[in-house]
Amino acid sequence: MRFDIVTLFPALFEGYLGEGLLSKAIKNELVDIHRHDLREFAPQSVHRPVDDKPFGGGPGMLIQVEPTVKCVEAVEAMSAVRARRILLTPGGKTFDQRMAEEFASDQRLILLCGRYEGFDQRVTDIWQPEEISIGDFVLNGGEVAAMVIIEAVIRLIPGVLGDQQSNIDDSFSQGNRLLEFPQYTRPREFRGHTVPDVLTGGDHGAIAKWRAEQSRLRTQSRRSDLLAENEIENKHPNE
Ligand code: SAM
Fold it and tell me: Which atom of ligand 1 sits closest to the CA of residue 60?
């Protein structure tokens, strides 16, 4: 899967691309990441500004329509693979696991990262991206939001995780959309806190039953909204 990240700060991704599952996925040619500097599309001048004051006044600066549209059009033309267009903004639709699953079935994503007060509205009007937010808070820029989307999506690409079962058990995932059950590793006892006997007894049926129950209890106490959704989703049409 190919990701094209359009940003004013391509260097921010340097360390990120070289570590962990992502770097392994890149080496194994499961994921291909390209960074593009929006400033390269600025009008020729010493400082290459891409921002200007908003019409009507107000604080801060906006990223201009011309360099942005020229940049995303050029990026899009770099590959014949049709791209899903994403503009990161706190005003967008909130990103979630279902969206990550949908994006993972695409072959290519373009992630447009804002800075300052965001983009001139005409970027959306002309380029027609999906506007996506990673939550109800305001970041300084879209780069971290782009990383969040990449992190969530690449986990779902077959071959990226060592064991695809993790995708099924993960919180919010297709398995049951609930929170994951509690997990333990060695030692069996620490400061009087012991691992539940069922997990060390070797009865796989009992372990599966315990985990399903714990997942339900945890979801009930922390995110009962998910249980309600789950019940609606699994309801038989004749019920
Ligand atoms: N003035 C904008 C507003 O209130 O909607 C916020 C601009 S923010 C300081 C700068 C950039 O950070 C945005 O253009 C966007 O790309 C990114 N950003 C900030 N918060 C975000 C969020 N919750 N989700 C996705 N991107 C975000």
Answer: 1
In eight-state DSSP terms, residue 194 is E
| 15 Cα–ligand 1 center, Å | 22
Q: Point out the residues that are catalytic.
A: 90, 117, 155, 170
pLDDT in tens, 48-104: 899 999 999 999 999 999 999 999 999 999 999 999 999 999 999 999 999 999 999
The type of residue at 72 is: V
129 lines ligand 1 (CB under 6 A): no
Q: What's the CA-to-centroid distance between 80 and ligand 1, angstroms? A: 30
163 assigned binding-site residue: no
Long-range contacts of 30-33, Cβ-Cβ distance < 8 Å, separation of 24 or more? 30/1, 30/154, 30/157, 30/159, 30/160, 31/1, 31/2, 31/3, 31/154, 31/157, 31/160, 32/1, 32/2, 32/3, 33/2, 33/3, 33/5, 33/150
DSSP code, position 85: E
Taking only the tens place, the pLDDT of each residue in 156-166 is 999 999 887 77
Sorted by where each starts, the structural domains of the chain and their CATH numbers stand as: 2-154 (3.40.1280.10), 176-234 (1.10.1270.20)
